[in-house]
Amino acid sequence: MAHPHIFVDAKFEAVGGADGNLSALRHIWRFDEVFSFSSSVLLDFDKNENMTLDSPELEAVAETVSASLSKYSYYTNITVDGKAVALGKPDAIKATYVDQSATRWGHARVSRVSEQR
């Protein structure tokens, strides 16, 4: 059985601190409606079976995504002079469900950038 393709609109923002160093990264991922509906997102998390994701269900999605992404450094790798820069745990990972599409966003703190220089 073939693995289905997932289409994602991804946005990325780098945030500079007052000291001029990189202080945070922001990611927004908007998954297509096929993934959002047919995958475990709606089918597994829509506990009240109303074909949408309510606040408690969205919180459960965000918790699951956060745990999963942390294992992979939030799919973000940063290096300075060839050395890896540590990412702190995101302040928040939130999930929304609008127009039959799941959106997840996160804000990861960057640590040790100035120490790497």
Low-confidence sequence ranges: 112-117
Structure annotation, total helices: 4
**How much of the residues is beta strand, in percent?**
25-35%
| Distance separating the two termini | 48 Å
Overall number of strands = 6
What's the arrangement of strands in the largest beta sheet?
1-2-6-5
InterPro entries: DUF1007
Protein name: DUF1007 family protein
Organism: Rhizobium leguminosarum bv. viciae
Question: Which descriptors apply to this entry?
Answer:
two-stranded antiparallel sheet; 117 residues; 6 strands; 33% strand
Question: Any overview of this molecule?
Answer:
With 117 residues, this protein is an alpha+beta fold. It has helices at residues 33-38, 40-45, 55-70, 113-116, and strands at residues 8-16, 22-31, 79-80, 83-84, 92-98, 101-109. Helix content is 27%, strand content 33%. The strands form 2 sheets. Strands 1-2-6-5 form a 4-stranded antiparallel β-sheet. A two-stranded antiparallel ribbon has the order 3-4. It is elongated and about 50 Å long. The N and C termini lie far apart (48 Å). The relative contact order is 0.21. Residues 112-117 have low confidence and may be disordered. InterPro entries: DUF1007 (IPR010412). This is DUF1007 family protein. It comes from Rhizobium leguminosarum bv. viciae.
Describe the SSE topology.
Layout: E1 8-16, E2 22-31, H1 33-38, H2 40-45, H3 55-70, E3 79-80, E4 83-84, E5 92-98, E6 101-109, H4 113-116
Antiparallel strand pairs: 1-2, 2-6, 3-4, 5-6
